Amino acid sequence: MIKIGVFFGGVSREREISFSGAKTVSQTLNRSLFEPVYILVDSLGKFIKINPVQFEHKAISHFYPTQESIPEEYDEFSPVYIETLENLTKEKHREIMEEVGTPISTENLSEHIDFALLMLHGTFAEDGMLQGLFEWLQIPYSGCGIFSSSFSIDKHLQQVVNEKLNLGDNRKYQMIRKEEWQKCDKKEFFEDLKSKLGLPIVIKAPYQGSSIGVSILKNDNLEEFIKAVNTSLFARQISKDEWTQLTMPQRKEYVNVLMSLEKGIGLPIIFEEKSLLGGNLGEQIIYSPLKLIEKLNDFFSYSEENATLFSFESEDMVLFEECLSGKEFSCGVIQNENLEVVALPPTEIITTTKVYDFEAKYLPNASQKRIPIDIPTDKIIEIQEKCKAIFQTFKFDACARIDGFYTDDNRIEIIDINTLPGMSPTSLIFRQAAEVGFSPTDFMTYLVYQSLNCRVHTAKRPYFFRNLFKKLESELLDSAYHKKEKVAIFFDETIFDEARKEYNSIASEGKQNPFCVFVKTENNQEVTLYKLPVSFLLKPNIEEVIQNLETELHPAISHTIEKAKELTDFFVKDFVSVPQKITLENLNDMTNDAVWLLRSPNNEDAAQSKLKRQLYEIGMAVVD
């Protein structure tokens, strides 16, 4: 069995999203093919092999560092990460790591794993650095290689290359470095920027993912502009009036918000110390929230100037772009074994917030997703072709997600490329892959398989990678893999989430091939049975499932299914593209096994009770 190292956490601001992805892997990875080994990359870059029991926590910061290792002065503050602890010795760091798992040295990683499945995001993960480390260690890894990873995280470089290669319609943009920003006349710079880009202006941190550090400035307001630029630099300014008007509890709350990696800038911070006479005394790194409060109290006791706080992981540049108007989309791209590219159905993102930022991506009900995007079919295919061309031009591997806009004047503009798409339950890549038949378990298997295939083609020493690839290939070609007994999962509108969990649980065990049967009851008298496509299990709610039971397949999805046929024939075991009404006779031809999830208290639902009796009568083995 192939040992899959599931790497999550990391140094970047997206570590908790990474944790969500690792949880998803723990629920969906095919355990008949793979043995998962969960490896937390802590925010100081150390590797810790952990027990999956830690996934019961809601966040990394809830179990690491352990509560016992956090000084009392942090008690009123959260989240606390390992880099926040001051005067951390190597010995103390190792002691804290051993409280949650087994520390693994870099050179010993290959003793624990055969393959690295990267659930990390952002800097030191998605930028080619980790990919380079695994190339050096000769450990095959998931996703794109060094060059395409480092290119895709650099939004400024993407703009420059786009301009040179004419990959889009050359959106206007400008950038400024942190040092220039600190010295420039802010009003003059703002006026010049407006004359070139107009309003609104998109303001970005160019090396972040998950839309962290992104703002859209709509108003002609210098104060709002300065605040937005500071957000992208992960800096905060506070005036003496603002600070001195806060009570002590309010000051603690201010620092608490500041500590958030998504909404704030995180600790430690860099504070530029100034003397009573205004001279620069140098930069000071502050780790403790209470010491930061003390420092601000002291600073404002003698200074009338604003205090400027920079994140220790601050950006060095800010990117400004003209704001596009239209429909925002995201399109996943994958490959077959011959490295031929398939673009998945692009998703339209409809936000209820001002911008598709971190909260819009990951908080419930902050945005809606429509598959495919609501534009003419020929334009959907044009988006797919453009995304395929970018994937091929920059030699992406296995999987990428490409984001853009279909503008009000019918242009297709690419705005971002993501080489390690999120794998949380709400992630777009899972939903798009499901439209062509991939369950989450099938897609994870595809990702390992195709990434291995890519490493065979690109590695400098591919011999060992080739052996591992052939081993997995032979298991997938084994007729027993595709001919496992099927099992039907019966559910109704009251237990949609439970049905999804049961489906993933059975699929990931790798012993049976599950499919879901939706039981629609009319007036407590008659039931209609629908065999559902896996794409319906990834819909956001049961209402959307019911609304689409009788709808026809969109032409763009039919087109994509045809393009992906070679992949689905290999990886997908029971593909249906639309809901199918089935009878008990049909069901008996499909399987003899059923999981009954419906909960009718005291047999009040006569129609469902009758259905269950009929299942027994036709010889079904029913498990409650």
Description:
The chain is an alpha+beta fold. The strands form 5 sheets. Strands 14, 15, 16, 17, 18 and 19 form a 6-stranded antiparallel sheet that branches. The protein has a 6-stranded mixed sheet with strand order 23-22-21-20-24-25, with helices on both faces. The chain has a 5-stranded mixed sheet with strand order 4-3-2-1-5. Helix 24 (606-617) links the parallel strand 24 (593-596) and strand 25 (621-623). Helix 10 (248-259) crosses helix 11 (289-302) and helix 15 (440-458) packs antiparallel against helix 16.
Q: What's the layout of helices and strands?
A:
Elements: E1 2-9, H1 15-28, E2 34-41, E3 47-50, H2 90-98, E4 101-104, E5 115-118, H3 129-137, H4 146-153, H5 155-165, E6 173-177, H6 178-183, H7 186-197, E7 201-204, E8 215-217, H8 222-233, E9 235-238, H9 240-244, H10 248-259, E10 269-274, E11 280-286, H11 289-302, E12 307-311, E13 317-322, E14 326-335, E15 341-343, E16 347-351, H12 358-362, E17 367-370, H13 377-393, E18 399-407, E19 412-418, H14 428-435, H15 440-458, H16 463-477, H17 479-482, E20 486-491, H18 496-509, E21 513-522, E22 526-531, H19 534-537, H20 542-547, H21 555-563, H22 565-571, E23 580-582, H23 584-590, E24 593-596, H24 606-617, E25 621-623
Parallel strand pairs: 1-2, 1-5, 20-21, 20-24, 24-25
Antiparallel strand pairs: 2-3, 3-4, 6-13, 7-8, 7-13, 9-12, 10-11, 10-12, 14-15, 14-16, 14-18, 16-17, 18-19, 21-22, 22-23
Helix pairs in contact: 10-11, 15-16
